[in-house]
Amino acid sequence: MFFSRQNKKRIAQLLPSFAEHDAMSDYVKSWNEILTKGGFSMSTFARFLPGRSSLKIRSYLDFNQNEFDLAILHLGIGDPINDIVKDLSIPLVVYYHNITPARFYKYYNWDLYELLVRGREQLNELASFACLGIGASKFSEKELIENNYRQTSVIPVFFDPRKLGRIQSSSRIKKYLNKEEITNITFLGRFSKHKAQIDLVKAFYIYRKYYNPKSRLNLVGNIVEQAYLGEVTKLIRALKIAEFINIPGIVSDEEMRAYYEESSVFISMSEHEGFFVPVLEANYYKVPMIAFDAGAVSETMGEAGILLDTKKPEIVASTIDRLVRDHNLRKYIIEKGTTNYKRFDQSLFTDVVVSTMKNIINSRFK
Amino acid sequence: MSEQQIDIKLIMAEIKDEAMRRSRQSDFERDLEFLNKSVSMNDEGEDMVDLLHQVERAKRLDLPSSVRKGFPARIFNVLLLKLYFVMKKIMSSFLITQTKLDAVIIQQLSELKKSIKFEQIDRFPYQEFERVFRQKKEEMAKTVEAVKDQIPKDISVLDIGGTNKLFGEAALEHNCNILVSTQDSDYEAWARSREKIRIDNTPLFEFLNNMRDEQFGMVVVIDLLHLYDINRVIAILHHAKRILTEGGKLLVQNYDPRDPQTYVSLFDPRLKQVIHPELMKFVLSQIGLKTIDISTKDKRKYVLLATK
User: Fold this and answer.
1) Closest chain B residue by Cα to residue A321
2) Are A78 and A116 in contact, with CB atoms under 8 Å apart?
3) Contact B19 A317 (CB under 8 A)
4) Does the model's pTM come out above 0.80?
5) Ranges of H-type helices in A19-98
6) Cβ-defined contact of A235 to B16 (cutoff 8 Å)
7) For strand B216-222 and strand A132-135, is the pairing parallel, antiparallel, or unpaired?
8) Which of B268, B255, B198 is nearest to B222 (CA)?
9) Contact across the interface for A318 and B28, Cβ inside 8 Å
């Protein structure tokens, strides 16, 4: 511990909304834990507060810069909280989780569209106020550089395999997925244009019809953009494959584990990922994966999957078939996966996080 | 099998071969054609959503609650939407639009399909045509060589279309940050390993509409404008001027109709018209740009450099 109790430096973390089981909130909690152990006194501020939380969260209206030596803003969407950290007299660090390009939501979710547009404006505006921009991936860091951040670095989202290990698999879902020895192909992610479920349906149609009639596509995830779901189901109906596609909506952790464990292939055609956590989950649950190369997918996946540079249904279907049948290839990818997720273990980044904040407070970045 | 024996590149090549082999079946071809057609959000859908957004925005205004909520309001909204589409249909018959022209082409194509064996046309060796008649790499290098000195150093460049990788290389040599609006997967694959090139796949006009004013030192439009109708050509050039910084340069390269050899390169189903360089200069001057000619060693192409 490099600060004495009397001389503890104080850091504020700010984020738009804090909620349990939310990726950004979990990350804030991890940083809170690391920096507290590193000898800092930590406080967290949010605009939307949780009803109940393991971490004490204060309203952003109570944020007073005079109480702190450093502020860390977690940026992932447009929000008024991103404006209150401008022009502080204490150093500001922007942790950029990445912002989904607004165009994906233009015809599906107008409110979100406007927030995403505002988020990118704020990302740009904050460049002149931040002494350091940290990207969740190299892909995010590139955007920070493009927005003229003076200093940038990368500290990835942490992956905690122990948390996944504690989850019990749902036997009900396992039973459902195993019925009639069907090949399960699964994607986990919210129903949203940029996640491109429509491309999965197209590829699955070809795969089922020309390669493997005993197969099922599971599109698991929160249904927020109803209009996009409508578009996907319209295509499913037109192709007459409704009975082979399972859309369960949001699932519990136990059910999620069952979906991973019982799937022959995890597949993603997503067109934008600031960091791609499902890759690491698939690695952990030993599911070989196929993904379209977009955003931070390739750097998160490494060699632990097949990266596609096309979405042509015939190529995607052929890749699924190869991965289902070729046991050596499956084994190779699963083996690569078991080392891949370990690259994102929290313990590897503890020192970097602590020393970075210590350096900033000592004004090395100023 | 040990790790050394797994070669992902080789496996991908095998996967692609298998996909090609299977896709030769006639059923498979038909299915792919259907899947390719099923694009997200058709025109009517987009209009519908735009209208719904307007309704959403209206809700935020201080309208009487009876208009916004409840069963009668829903019926009213549905009737309003129906009325909108009926009016749109009536109005569209009075307008000569691109959609109408497209409809004529589709009509002609379907008649053609009925009258002859269409499969014969599908077998036209297009790749072979490209190999023989399209501009060779060394010829492309000649035109790029001519414009290379015109690229300022350390600026942001927007490449609309992104067909010319050699230009990309030249701009990178000048330490430029390059944003490329393209849907060309070959170009995208090539650009992926180049850090200073960023690709945007958004449809061109949506992409241009989203661009801020005065953010690029140079905009290049290489071998693209002959694929657009006149209104779109003018719209692209207007956008280019808008997003150029003061003193910024617009580089336009296109096929030169003064050289008869040009026409052997233009067996392109997307071709709209060849634009004479004098006409292009006229259009650029109307937009308010000062234009100079750049001479190239390839007679099939002309290059114009316009300054804001």
Assistant:
1) B15
2) yes
3) yes
4) no
5) 23-37, 81-84
6) no
7) unpaired
8) B255
9) no
**Which of B20, B23, B204, B210 is the mutation pick for testing A, counting most A CBs within 10 A?**
B23
Specify which residues B199 forms β-bridges with. B180
Q: Which amino acid is at A261?
A: E
Both tokens of residue A170?
């749902």
So what's the ipTM on this one?
A: 0.82
Reading the block at residue A123, the tokens are 């990302």
- Largest Cα–Cα distance in chain A? 71
Rounded to an integer, what distance in angstroms lies between the CA atom of residue B155 and that of residue B215? 10
CA angle A336, A198, B269 (to 5 degrees): 105
**Residue appearing with tokens 């490099």:** A2
A318 touches chain B (CB under 8 A): yes
How far apart (Å, rounded) are the C-alpha atoms in residues A261 and A263?
Answer: 6
Over residues A7-46, the pLDDT tens digits come to: 789 999 999 988 877 788 889 999 999 999 999 999 999 9
Over the stretch A318-345, which tens digit does the pLDDT of each residue have?
Answer: 999 999 999 999 999 999 999 999 999 9
Among the partner residues A202, A306, A310, nearest to B8 by beta-carbon distance: A306
- How far apart CA B218 and CA B193 sit, in angstroms, is 22
Spatial distance between the Cα atoms of A194 and A103, rounded to a whole number of angstroms: 9
Output the tens digit of pLDDT for each of chain B's 308 residues.
444 468 888 999 999 999 888 888 888 888 888 887 765 444 344 444 455 545 444 444 333 344 445 566 666 766 776 776 677 667 655 554 444 455 555 666 666 666 665 555 555 566 677 777 777 777 778 778 878 888 888 899 999 988 788 888 889 989 899 999 987 777 887 887 788 888 888 888 888 888 888 889 999 999 899 988 888 898 899 999 999 999 999 999 998 888 887 887 777 767 888 899 999 999 999 888 988 888 777 788 899 999 98
Q: Out of B1, B11, B22, whose CB is closest to A322?
A: B11
Residue in this structure with the two tokens 């464990």, named with its chain if needed = A261
Give yes or no for B21 touching A (CB within 8 A). no
Separation between Cα atoms, residue B138 and residue B153, nearest integer Å: 24
What six digits make up the tokens of A127?
Answer: 């460049």
By Cβ distance, the residue of B15, B38, B40 closest to A318 is B15
Q: Which of B31, B45, B57 is closest, CB to CB, to A209?
A: B31
Q: Six-digit token pair at A91?
A: 């150093």
Q: Does B59 touch chain A (CB under 8 A)?
A: no
Q: Does B15 touch chain A (CB under 8 A)?
A: yes
What are the residues whose beta carbons fall under 8 Å from the beta carbon of A40, sequence distance 6 or more? A3, A8, A9, A10, A11, A354, A357
